[in-house]
Amino acid sequence: MKLAILSRAPQAYSTQRLRAAAQQRGHRVKVLDTLRFAIDLSGPEPDLQYRGRLLSDYDAVLPRIGNSITYFGTAVVRQFEQMDVYTPNTANGITNSRDKLRATQILSRHNIGMPATAFVHSRADVRLAIERVGGAPVVIKLLEGTQGIGVILAPEVKIAEAIIETLHSTKQNVLIQSFISESRGRDIRALVVGDRVVAAMRRVASGDEFRSNVHRGGTVEPVELTPEFEQAAVRSAQIMGLRVAGVDMLEGNEGPLVMEVNSSPGLEGIERATGLDVAGAIIDFIDNQVAFPEIDVRQRLSVSTGYGVAELLVHANADLVGKRVGDSGLGERDITVLTLHRGTSVIPNPRSGVELEAGDRLLCFGKLEEMRSMIPERRRRRTKVRKLPKEPIPEG
């Protein structure tokens, strides 16, 4: 295959390892500077230019998008997607993972264990937010911090309030998270490729430092993950729309707590800690998937007038409860069930014999009018329209 690696750091360890792994497997590979692209939308088909010339054809693209160029970098990746070039990490996946608040919001909807988190803007709400996450000490995080930068441990409520007030005064948005004392100075980085963890390491902070990032002087050691930790890592990456990701987890008393999902994980630390060819695993995965480029399903399925994608919740008192998919009447109403979500499990293309249960969420494609008719109407009281006051805008 012909592979493009998007990177502004061609000499970085991760970029060199990925290029070497691709070449060793007989693939053609080029490292392209992300900022030298130009998106061309002037012609009948979307296209890309590189260094002023029309970009040649590629089978796949592997984005290594730095934090500082997320907006432009994801625009380039999105253009590759529109051109049906395979990428293991979509533009949406990269964008979602870069914003810590957005990532937390997405993961929290899918029953992923995470440290208790709050996000506030008003100074008056800070103390209550700290109480909601379990009280001091708390961890304060900048939404777009990397490599441990912008992560502060506040031992007391007043100190936390002062830090947050200072950061807000500089127009910084911050998250307030509970401090997981049992994992102080330690976390786990799992490298997810496709639907499995290919390597994992434990990072241990140096001295009194509570941040375990290698860039902060931490040490690493290989670790064998339990099925619980492996499942949490894989599900988190998949939920974010990433097929290559570094998932950082804390070892909580009640199981894994996901801190972050990184769309451009560094390979040096984990390869040296485990002795495993992680770069090779990434290239092999791309090679196996290159014929199946990621597409925006909602975009493709919604182009037919009157048709679209929607998620239907099976309520406890719904007629669908206890019925099989084949007997539900959905097919007769021109509605196709694409995926059935039940708790933390997912049933793709559910067969006609699958029995529906209360609480099931059905991702469906079909007639929007029919799907709207299946959503229970919210009871609203119709208020009487009053007469306009004699003084519509009172003086004073």
Structure description:
This protein has helices at 13-24, 70-82, 91-98, 100-108, 126-132, 157-169, 227-240, 268-274, 278-289, 297-301, 368-373; strands spanning 2-6, 28-32, 37-40, 47-50, 53-54, 60-63, 117-118, 138-142, 151-154, 174-178, 186-193, 196-204, 219-222, 244-252, 255-262, 307-313, 335-342, 345-348, 361-367. By secondary structure, it is of the alpha+beta class. A hairpin with an 8-residue loop joins strand 8 and strand 9. Helix 1 crosses helix 9 and helix 2 (70-82) packs antiparallel against helix 3 (91-98). The radius of gyration is 24 Å and the shape is globular. A 5-stranded antiparallel sheet has the order 13-12-11-14-15, with helices on both faces. Strands 7-10-8-9 form a 4-stranded antiparallel sheet, with helices on both faces. A 4-stranded antiparallel sheet has the order 16-19-17-18.
